[in-house]
């Protein structure tokens, strides 16, 4: 039952396919790719964060943090589900071009890969909010040797894919708008939290490692 609850988002998107076909009589490759990749990154998060037990020792979660997280959930989950299941947003339907389909598929694929690597390399220290876990260590290997915040990179790529593949311009762009607001409001605070926790070690790491766009050179 717990697993079903944790995978409820993925199940919701999976069931959206027959509902969409029933509503429109067909489904395009763009929508199928969007749904498939969305299920993929939701399953990745469920599998790689299952059973996390490390205690939180420092948290920086205020009303603004909660509000932007909520807005991101609406933009990346709720509005797409409404667009797929109901006619409420049908006024915003459109047909993506082949170029948009290709670009969106590439963005989603890259986003899913970076999302997986970010979770796998960070391990038990991942948190959806600004937190320091018990025994928290600074991870500078794997994908974190190329970029400091690969989770943000992954979600930006996923939001680009959503905007290009979801055949609804309102629900498609909502994720990007909401997540950009979350990123702008959070990243400075996260950098400050990491400097407070790891001091000069993090400052040296930040000096040699890009913030958001991965370096092509391997760094350690």
Concise summary:
Helix content is 66%, strand content 3%. By secondary structure, it is mainly α. Strands 1-2 form a two-stranded antiparallel sheet.
Notable characteristics:
220 residues, Four Helix Bundle (Hemerythrin (Met), subunit A), two-stranded antiparallel sheet, 66% helix
Commentary on this structure:
Helices cover 66% and strands 3% of the residues. With 220 residues, it is mainly alpha-helical. The protein has one domain (2-208): Four Helix Bundle (Hemerythrin (Met), subunit A) (Up-down Bundle). The protein has a two-stranded antiparallel ribbon. The radius of gyration is 18 Å and the shape is elongated. The termini are far apart.
Please outline the major beta sheet. Answer: 2 strands, antiparallel
Broad shape: elongated
- The secondary-structure element order is HHHEHHEHHH
List the strand order in the largest sheet: 1-2
Radius of gyration: 18 Å
Based on secondary structure, the structural category is mainly alpha
Counted beta strands = 2
> In the CATH hierarchy, what is the architecture at level 2?
Up-down Bundle
CATH topology: Four Helix Bundle (Hemerythrin (Met), subunit A)
CATH domain class: Mainly Alpha
Average pLDDT metric: 88
**Poorly predicted segments:** none
Helix-strand layout with pairing:
Layout: H1 2-6, H2 8-24, H3 29-49, E1 56-59, H4 63-85, H5 98-122, E2 131-133, H6 150-165, H7 169-198, H8 200-208
Antiparallel strand pairs: 1-2
Helix pairs in contact: 2-3, 2-4, 3-5, 3-6, 4-7, 5-6, 6-7, 7-8
């Amino acid at each position: 039952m717990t697993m079903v609850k944790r995978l409820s988002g993925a199940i919701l998107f999976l069931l959206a396919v027959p509902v969409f076909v029933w509503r429109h009589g067909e489904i395009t490759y763009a929508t199928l790719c969007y749904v498939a990749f969305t299920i993929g990154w939701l399953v990745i998060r469920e599998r790689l964060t299952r059973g996390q037990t490390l205690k939180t020792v420092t948290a920086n979660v205020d009303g603004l943090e909660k509000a932007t997280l909520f807005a991101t959930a609406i933009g990346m989950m709720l509005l797409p589900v409404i667009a797929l299941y109901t006619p409420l947003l049908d006024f915003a339907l459109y047909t993506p071009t082949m170029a948009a389909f290709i670009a969106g598929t590439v963005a989603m694929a890259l986003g899913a890969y970076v999302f997986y690597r970010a979770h796998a390399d960070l391990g038990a220290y991942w948190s959806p909010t600004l937190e320091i876990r018990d025994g928290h260590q600074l991870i500078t290997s794997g994908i974190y040797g190329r970029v400091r915040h690969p989770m943000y990179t992954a979600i930006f790529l996923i939001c680009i894919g959503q905007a290009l593949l979801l055949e609804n311009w309102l629900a498609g762009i909502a994720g990007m708008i909401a997540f950009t607001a979350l990123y702008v409001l959070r990243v400075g605070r996260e950098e400050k939290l990491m400097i407070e926790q790891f001091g000069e070690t993090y400052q040296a790491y930040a000096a040699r490692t890009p913030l958001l766009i991965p370096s092509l050179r391997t760094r350690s």
